[in-house]
Amino acid sequence: MTEAIISLRGVSKVFPGRRAAVTAVDDVDLDVYEGEIFGVIGYSGAGKSTLVRLINALEHTTSGTVTVAGTDITKLRERRLRPVRAGIGMIFQQFNLLASRTVAGNVAYPLRVAGVKRAEREARVAELLDFVGLTDKAGVYPSKLSGGQKQRVGIARALATSPRILLADESTSALDPETTADVLGLLRRVNAELGITIVVITHEMDVVRALCHRIAVMERGRVVEVGDAYQVFANPTHAATARFVGSSLHDVPTPEILERLRRRHDGRLVLMRMQSDGGASGYLTSTLREHGVEGTIIYGGITEIGERPFGSLTLELVGEQADVERFVADVTVRAGASDLGTAAAPRPLPRHDERGSVR
Ligand SMILES: Nc1ncnc2c1ncn2[C@@H]1O[C@H](COP(=O)(O)OP(=O)(O)OP(=O)(O)O)[C@@H](O)[C@H]1O
């Protein structure tokens, strides 16, 4: 995973709006490495779809260059773009299947367009339907399929011409959680078994959690943060990222919730971040014991990102005041915990870029 298969340099896209021009993508530099699953996240209107449409030249850049598999596609004429697009599969939120064609017909469609002979086409379609688990639906029309099955057909069709890159634009947003998990599992197989680089656009944290190796966070056309999915979520440096994590996990009390907690718990409160190597709870237990302090969990949440624990716990500490002080000093320094004070002497919640972690 060292070579960039997609590179954007100084890329902007401006749409001439009715009143004023809209800068959908604003001076973006980005590398997506061969073999990775890369997430583009952000709220509606951030510019995610436009960014991805620039990668397969469905939109043309206003400025900057987009390089795909070594070719600068911003300089290519339409005819020369065709083979580049053939190397990029795409799946959509609304599946975009042809209603008048069977499942097999839909998957065969890009092969027909590419002029693949019938026998070869049929063999390839059978292979793809087997891969996505829809062999028994070959002769069925899309209207008879569930949402999850439709997206499987979409994936099989996107893979038909053996692309090196798959772009997935909100590919699970129209699906229920169980079906989403199913489709995400299939995308993981596409990446792991076929070695295809995947770029997913999503506003859903669950998708990122289950799938992405690295992510870019977009806000108002700009990439405000990029990196390893776990690192970015564990240590957000931009408010947009922190909002994204907080709105999905709800592990850190909001100021209002903290107020309520203080009414019920008048002891010293401390916010402990749980991350990384799984040693966190052991560290917490031993440090409490070491200082002769008891800790009661009064708020928090722990989940996984990329199979690593992630989240935070808010504890109320009970013990001799001097012991509590020493414990708080210790975990603040060694584990980046946040001292929230007491109901009588409250201390504010940490800003998003001040959160530490238990390592
Ligand atoms: N063809 C277009 N013409 C004019 N403005 C456009 C066009 N396409 C996108 N925009 C504008 O560009 C901005 C970014 O849109 P884009 O669809 O890329 O965002 P997004 O993050 O994908 O949002 P969503 O998740 O809602 O699709 C928005 O303000 C949008 O209105």
UniProtKB/TrEMBL annotation:
Please tell me whether the keyword Transport is annotated for this protein: yes
User: Sorted alphabetically, which keywords does the UniProt record give?
Assistant: Amino-acid transport, ATP-binding, Cell membrane, Membrane, Nucleotide-binding, Translocase, Transport
Q: Which InterPro entries match?
A: AAA+_ATPase, ABC_transporter-like_ATP-bd, ABC_transporter-like_CS, ACT-like_dom_sf, MetN_ABC, MetN_ABC_transporter-like, NIL_domain, P-loop_NTPase
Q: Which GO terms describe its biological process?
A: amino acid transport
| Molecular function as annotated in GO | ATP binding; ATP hydrolysis activity
**ABC transporter domain location:** 6-245
Q: Which CDD domains match?
A: ABC_MetN_methionine_transporter
Give the Pfam families listed for this entry: ABC_tran (PF00005), NIL (PF09383)
Q: Which domain of life is it from?
A: Bacteria
**Any one GO CC term of the record:** plasma membrane
Alphabetical list of PANTHER family matching this protein: AMINO ACID IMPORT ATP-BINDING PROTEIN, METHIONINE IMPORT ATP-BINDING PROTEIN METN
Q: How does it assemble?
A: Homodimer. Forms a membrane-associated complex with FtsX.
Relate the protein's function as given in its record.
Part of the ABC transporter FtsEX involved in cellular division. Has ATPase activity.
Per the record, the similarity remark reads: Belongs to the ABC transporter superfamily.
**What name does the UniProt record give this protein?**
Methionine ABC transporter ATP-binding protein
Record the organism: Serinibacter arcticus
* Taxon lineage: Bacteria, Bacillati, Actinomycetota, Actinomycetes, Micrococcales
